[in-house]
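Feature request, filed as a ticket because there's no other form

It would be nice if the structure record came with a short human-readable summary line next to the tokens. Right now we just get the raw output. Example of a typical job, pasted below so the devs can see what we mean:
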Amino acid sequence: MTTTMGQDFVIETSVENRVAVVRLADEDNRNALSNDMRQGLASTFADLEDDPEVRAVYLTGRGRAFCGGGDLRMMRDEGDAWSSHQRFRRAARWLTDMIRFPKPVVVGVNGPAVGGGIGIALVGDVILAGQERASFVSGFLRLGLLPDIGVMYTMPRLIGLARTKAFVYGNATWSASDAEQAGLVTAAVPDAELEARGLEQARAMAELPLEGFGLSKWLMGRSLESSLDEMMTYENLGQSLAYTTESMREGLSALREKRAADFVAASEREPAVRAARGRHKRD
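Raw output as currently delivered:
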């Protein structure tokens, strides 16, 4: 296992068995979205996307909170219009990259996700929440602000506009069970099992054919704003590309030979992966 520290030690990252464990680790600040946390998330996910040793990510928080939302000191000191515009212009880049991250992302919500912290949780392809300590706190209107960090994009797509409006406009706080019932999270699990269940799910997803996974995630993210004709065109192009991959050839061979497919080995035969592995070793 290798361990690296993120920007100003607010992100901890370790890699083992092809899964990167990313921990928001600014415990004294409830893992709030300070400038350091934002920069740390941006650089961490950019590095993990390029790392051929990483095939899945497990994202969680350290301490009593998952993510406390906006950093109050930053909001006070950098709340002028231009600073806010610059901050959210940068967020549009790194958050979009997280939402479209081409490898599986499993999120373990270990404590409160407040305001924009909900947006960080919702980048997950699978979202688990600890039954005892996890909660989802709207918080935005209490500060006279609107939902940010992608919440107005991701939440309605998961639970619909009516439930999203009830949550946001009601200044609601949902427990893990409430979130599971609404369809916001995949499952509420006992706190003692959260990490093990999250890592188990991430390890299982690391065995998927990442080429097909990444293409389907990229295209599915456009489904609600695209016409049927557009989606069929995207499907045509995406599937045609998937047919050229080593993973497709491995899956077809495994099916015909009645054996388990080894998509990890298949991916490593791709020229781009071999080249990335060589660059990674030199770095």
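Something like this underneath would help us a lot:
Confidence is low (pLDDT under 50) at residues 1-7.
The two ends are 18 Å apart (CA to CA).
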